[in-house]
Amino acid sequence: MKNSFKNLLVNKGYKYLVLKLVIFFMIVFIADFFIGKLFSYFYFKQTSGWEYRTKYSVEDTKADILIFGASRAQQHYNPIFFEDKLNQSCYNVGRDGESIFYQYAILKAILKRYSPKMIILDIENKEFLSSQGSYDRLSVLLPFYSHHPEMRPIIQLKSSYEKYKLLSKVYPYNSMVFKIAIGNTQLSKKKEEDIKGYLPLTRELDEPIRTHNLSEKYDIDSIKVNCYKAFIADCIEANVKLYLVCSPYFINTVGSDSSMTIGKEIAKANNIHFFDFSKDELFLKNSNLFDDTVHVNVSGSKIFSNQLIDSLIANNKNQAVN
Amino acid sequence: MYSNPAYILIAAFIILITWYAGIQIEKTTSDKKARQFYLLAIVANITVLVFFKYTNFFTNTAFDLINFTRQKLFHSNITLSNSLIINVLAPLGISYITFQAIGYLVEIKKGNHPAEKNPGYFATFLLFFPKIVAGPVERAHHFLPQLKQNKPFDYDNISGGLKKILWGLFKKLVIADRLSIYVSAVLDNAGHHTGLSIFIAVVFYVFQMYADFSGYTDMALGFAKILGFDLMKNFNRPLLATSVTEFWRKWHISLSSWFADYFYNPIAISKRDWGKWSVVYASFTTFIVLGFWHGANWTFIIFGALQGLILTIEFFTRKTRKSIRKKIPGFLNIMLGNAFTFLYFAFSLIFFRAASVSDSFVIIKRMFLKGPLFIENATMIVFSFLAIFFLAAVEIKTEYYDTLFTFSNNKNWIVRNCYYCFLLMLILIAGVFDGGQFIYFQF
Q: Where are the domains of chain B?
């Protein structure tokens, strides 16, 4: 026995290779497990920053009103005004660059914990545009894969190999090491003003308004449309008051955007109110309310949030009368 | 291998014509006949390459010229659009296949290598899968004999190959793809960026290019090694070169040596009665063609011309530079040479990367404008600098302190295993696996 092992080492045959590979992968497995655990510990311990906000949205918020959407949600809806005027707690769960996939995954996790009283989903032009980026950006949800089974079907949309990649404990935290480190310090808090998920923009746009033709055709992603339908259906099922909103742009538009048309049709079919501020004159005439052509600044956000709240109140009154 | 299965026929055509011509060149006793077969096969290879890769460039240029002439001479406002444009994709690896085929024919014609009788071996030489996408440009005398050797199980080959693949993956995923995020965000929107941002993106692009290309090559060499094949070394730490002349001896070695053997040397020899100017002529012609080989665009031609220009300058100033070098301390010599070579190559890559010549000039012009540094995602920048630092540390250590200490080839297997485990963990922690890492960029 001793001799054959010695021969194995000396001859360096395929058995030796297998032995070395087994040892190597054992080291990798152990390293992956412990480093992954370490990342997980610090990820869920964050107190500020992007990842913290996602974690807070998924696991902690119990706000009565939730605002969903991408960057335009995050930077257009100030929860403070909603809380003051509607007398209910509010949190903005919007996240820059994310699509309806992210929104739906977050909704699933929240509805598992509790049912908010009201949800506002911000919809933008080209919302249902077919784009690989929307799938890739689901990577921010990977840390929740192991203990949030309700989010798994959406996370697995990222790629057909995702469940195999997720055998690694480190992979879910890919590219997050510095964000996690910063999220565990007070650096983010000092750097950015985070008002219950709302991130105000301070620049004032100084350029003439441009005109865009929205009637150009593009590929619609049916999976995104289905997610949008499922988002509405789940809200209805959970008895959550849902409002769909298209917030202001500083762009003159010609024609109608395909995604917006689809979004409005589905909303109508489900009896959900759709507020469209994309052609609001006040915003189209005042570039100083914008940070760039698609994002309002802090002044614009104040005006828009209050306009929307007034519309919501008026809508509720109308519904009560009817 | 190809984007369309029908493209297999193109590869088959190149293989058959080159293989048959090779045998005939060797077999025939008539020089004239040998020359005919030789030219036929060379022309066939070049025709395939030109047709798929350059037809649209040539017809576009011709139409641009016609339109320009009509406007200037006849004051015509009518612009003719290119009606000869062809909508076909170039078969994957076509440039590498044809160059290897041409090199093979030249060597047979010179009598340096016997023609391969077995079409299977010959097809494998041209289509060996690890090298088909990004080289190296193999030579028949180096590769064909390996095909005929027995390939018994070899632990060292498999272990060495796997290590090379891992290092290649690291360079591709952790360095190249990471840097490409900032590079794309800035250089694809250069009109909105200024000085420092553009400068950093241009510098990043050099490392991105190197890590990407040499990473692919490492993987190719690694896969080949597992199968028992040694492919040509393609990179020899080019970013540590102290002159552009030295750089091209270290960068894409298989291609630059191919051009040296089959293009530069024949030209320089044929014009040897021009004296020093034969070198200038050969350098310029070679690098313009080498630039053009990379893609059918004027930007690549300018990239090549810039290399030709600096090689000419370095050729004429070599004595002066040598005498200056003697007066400067050695380390300063290396650093200055290194910095100049790096910055010159970085500058020339602006043309290499830009979609058009006018885009290149926008980038150059805006590099001199003052403005804020674009940092939309600070962690991305930190990752990028760390990636460059890691690459530079490994390269400098290998170049200057290779005998000092080694993790990758340490005698202690635990150290070796831990090092490769560390690389794997870094890939999982910092590798870019898809478009999930992005810089939100909107104006």
A: 5-147, 157-367
